[in-house]
Design goal:
Radius of gyration of chain A: 20 Å
Order of helices and strands of chain A: EHEHHEHEHHEHEHEHEHEEHEEEH
CATH superfamily of the largest domain in chain A: Dihydrodipicolinate Reductase, domain 2
Helix content of chain A: 25-40%
Strand content of chain A: 15-25%
CATH class of the largest domain in chain A: Alpha Beta
Largest sheet of chain A: 7 strands, mixed
Oligomer: homotetramer
Mean pLDDT of chain A: 96
């Protein structure tokens, strides 16, 4: 409680990850929001755009300003892909800690990034420096980082689900499957026909079976866990919920692990000390709503009919642990705050 | 921060108002949950029934026990109607402060109560003592109360919406209309066909046009405000949202108020010092989601085409300001805590 | 069954009223779709945009063409407001029957239309000729019409609800109230933020309290019924359902009607011969889903507590009876087909 | 049109498959509903329970009566599991064609059936005779059947999805995966907490990972296709839509098929003559809503990144092709009617 309030800047903040970040920061005991920039909404009070923040955030969006951001200790980018890479270097050089909630610094291989994001990268050298902000994998590096690439929503749910299996060399790495379902907020707050209420409600569909930007990001993470290249089939789906990702993961147990392994124990031990990963009792099926508005990842592991297939169920709130909450968790680590600071809200049920 | 933790008991707690109350109490800085009783679920850990509470509430439901409840300083009844009236007297006599979230103590006229709730009242004398827990009307009495009748959800939204108009004698009291819409959680967590997902989703309907239990409760409150009998047409509807009430209120302005009155100013002044009533700027339309999971009532007032009809839009979260949140607000008042203690969560949007 | 297939053209057809119209026409026993125009989508097969029509409509959208439309016997405009008025005259002159599902010909007073629709009207003389396509009011005129202005969705539900009360001079015409709730498809298939799934689902709100385009349209209709000017407060709301309107109507019974009138009988008799108005038994509450995908208006009438207020509940599917279905009903009348032809689908429940 | 109307009886009919069956039969050109039985609802007019059927079905539910059912030509059982096996024998003996929409006759191995359905089977000999009613596999046997076991919803979507791959020996039969998502109506119209609106909406979860009744039914079907035992991991999920199943199927291509096979062509050819299976163009992702209320199964087949995994997306309406619609299709076949008779409704979009 003796922490001095951190001076915080947010670039962007008009999207869903943005408003979630503002909700968390406004309630964070050690943060003071100094500036929220938006070229398009400059002058609009934040609480006019997001009435849930009335009485809690008095700032208006301001025009982007290097000077104002440089006076912050931490700057979050809650912007479309391709924005942070233009400004982050300047801020890092000025001693500001930077957390990019978008994808600019997630993929180390620049050619791969450029292929999937369709543009030339503006600062490959900063990509090399950036730490991938999945605390359950990179906690110590995050503590020392000047710039953190906050993971994508699918990659968070999928990597946390596979991590114990891969770390302990339990499964056939040639045939991993991630069948993932996302709430509609994952598509952002852009005016588009396919995410209209009348298109997305009372409807379920797969998309991007032929390719999705999160595939290379997940692969990079799984490869690092495995220490070799893995093969993954990744099929994302859109489900008519606002928040939430449910990843259903399939992996074939290695011959030598089949009889001896107790998957339940493996998962419980692996995550025993993690504040934001909750391994459910054997036989459970996590609801996405059990993490709605919370920073938790809830996981259950199954081995149906005692066979050779492990089925892992991993749920997160895509806007919290899958975006803004994880960003705050990274900020806490980078700034020496308690890791759970400002992240202890209980999921809203029902 | 110097407050000692209050010892809290909850009777019931397996319904939606119950889980909301537990969510709020688990995060309340000055409360310690000592006992949660449920005859039916005795022995079940609370977090098994409500996984969002895993790691936050370690208690199991216990069999009802007078002894355990008497050791609490505050006991909430989050039970079906007709339960609290059996036990409240004993607790009040033992010096425990009691808050009934159900309807047993809301209606002063026992015959009316018995007509609408279909059973004989077990302790009319306690009804006479109980304070109606709408802090915006009865704050000082609540501070001194031994037993509080927590208002219903519709009555909260409707009374707060009409209050300034009636208090200032602005409207024709013979022709008040409340067209109210409730989320489905208002019907509770009972297994019933009409609130199944496949019945209630993608559907909208009115119900109870011929009579609803909240009608006499609202009337009692409006009569007290007006100092005379008023006439109210009340039509509740079911809308496919989980949480939220939207009351659309219609009142005819008195001849002598039509020209001079500034309704916007009237509402802003009336509620200027209320921590949980937020009067929106002129021309606004409050979303129910802007109060989702928060204890706020957000209100907008209109006078369409400058005519003689005032239209008031009043929204609350039926489980928070309409039930558990208001109950905690009442507890704060009864126990000398800051009124907003534990009730400052920002609404979850989107 | 001896009817020759009518040659049909559709201008527009890429919105929700459009796809509903195509669904109905593709199943209509006496229609042959000849041309569907869309400037923007020219060349796209209709069934690529709307996969539910695969195998049922083989046409592609074509560029607007006067020649192709003139070869049709009936042309529907399922376009944004302001398009039909540019082309309808030419088609009417060529002997084509025209039905405008948009608003160009609904309001007789040109100044009022221009005020609400924000543009100069291109053919006031055709407005004078156009018949307002509410068959329950104007059936015989529709049979003889060359051009029909298909009513708006709110106006259909509200006018059918008030009609018997006003026709029989039962109510105070100075204080009519229509509290109406619409599904999100009423806002159309435009890419806009406020109708995104994450904005509109799990949320309820009023809008347009200060003014809505359907207000003058409803007033015009009620005035004609009453033979004098009436006063109406109209408050539309957005409810998270795809299809459906629920209008809750309030009217004060005239002193002299209070004792004698049997509202139930009044409604049943008034609508006894209407194929698409179904008066429910006394005490009923119609679900919007009970008319989902059907051309019916279902109505219940109440007099709460035997008082002086009549409450009418009126539901339609905004895309069917509130748009495309009523347009087909009008076509049937104009072309001498059985009025119910192609409109007998049973509502989809659940 | 020269067909004489078939006399139809329905046993049960108060659940969701029941009301869907009634909707289809009421619109079927060659059927006459003679009797609808329900012990519990005897005397209630069908249209009082299901107002969407007002004016279309005038029957009331009647008490079960062998005599009345024996006068029918076709009897559908839309009952809970375990009812049809008590009565079907008597009807078959009386020359009535029987279609069981429940599970009593689906599984040939009686011990397996008894294990999963938890009761002793009442007429194993009729199980042996019953034809599994998947027309795309058993069309000719269905034509000659006296009794048809209508397939489950998941089994329909999964079997139609895998059929071409297995029939043409394309895939590793040891590692089939079916990740299936169902709308909530699949759980039926029973009053249960877990399918309440407030439990199932804005939520997504897996269930039954450790075992589901449809697993042995699917296995039986796949084994017959393959001519040997296959191994299948089946994970069902609950998604907040009313109607619809989306099965995402994963299968490993055999080494020798990888280079040469054109999966798109394989599927298109296999289903070229099927009236109710629609293979979408390469690269497609079928929406569940594209089959809402229709009897179609829409399928897309993918081979992500040209690898060795085939991904099949298969959607049906669980109440139509997955229950009542397929039952009518079976009736059409059994009775010599056109297979598509009464089943040509276009899916309701939006």
């Amino acid at each position: 409680m003796a922490h001095k309030a951190l001076k915080i800047g947010v670039v962007g903040g008009t999207g869903y990850a943005g408003v979630e970040l503002l909700r968390l920061l406004a309630q964070h005991p050690h943060c003071e929001l100094k500036v929220i920039t938006s070229r398009q909404e400059a002058g609009t009070p934040v609480a006019v755009m997001f009435p849930n923040l009335r009485g809690r955030i008095d700032l208006a969006f301001s025009a982007p300003s290097d000077a104002a951001l440089k006076q912050c200790e931490v700057v979050f980018f809650a912007t479309p892909n391709g924005v942070a890479m233009q400004q982050a270097g300047m801020l890092v050089d000025a001693g500001v800690r930077v957390i990019d909630i978008a994808a600019d610094f997630r993929i180390k291989d620049i050619a791969t990034w450029e292929k999937w994001y369709g543009t030339k990268h503006a600062c490959p050298e900063l990509v090399a420096e950036a730490v991938y902000g999945l605390p359950e994998v990179n906690r110590e590096s995050i503590r020392r980082a000047r710039i953190v690439a906050n993971p994508g929503c699918y990659p968070t749910a999928v990597q946390l689900g596979f991590l114990p299996l891969i770390k302990h060399a339990m499964v056939d790495l040639e045939h991993l499957i991630a069948d993932a379902k996302s709430g509609v907020s994952g598509a952002g707050r852009k005016a588009e026909v396919h995410t209209l209420f009348c298109e997305a409600s009372d409807n379920f569909k797969a998309y991007g079976v032929t390719g999705h930007r999160h595939h290379p990001e997940i692969l990079q993470g799984l490869n690092l866990m495995a220490g070799r290249d893995v093969r993954l089939t990744f099929v994302p789906h859109l489900t008519p919920i606002i928040r939430g990702i449910h990843a259903t993961l399939y992996a074939r147990l290695q011959c030598n692990s089949r009889d001896s392994v107790d998957l339940q124990q493996l998962y419980e031990r692996h995550y025993a000390n993690e504040p934001f990963v909750d391994v459910l009792p054997a036989g459970s099926h996590p609801d996405t709503r059990s993490v709605r508005g919370s920073n938790l990842c809830r996981i259950a592991v199954h081995r149906p009919h005692g066979g050779d297939v492990a089925v892992v169920l991993s749920v997160i709130d895509n806007l919290t642990k899958g975006a803004a909450g994880q960003a705050v968790q990274n900020m806490n680590l980078m700034c020496g705050l308690p890791e759970t600071s400002g992240l202890e809200q209980i999921a809203l049920v029902p």
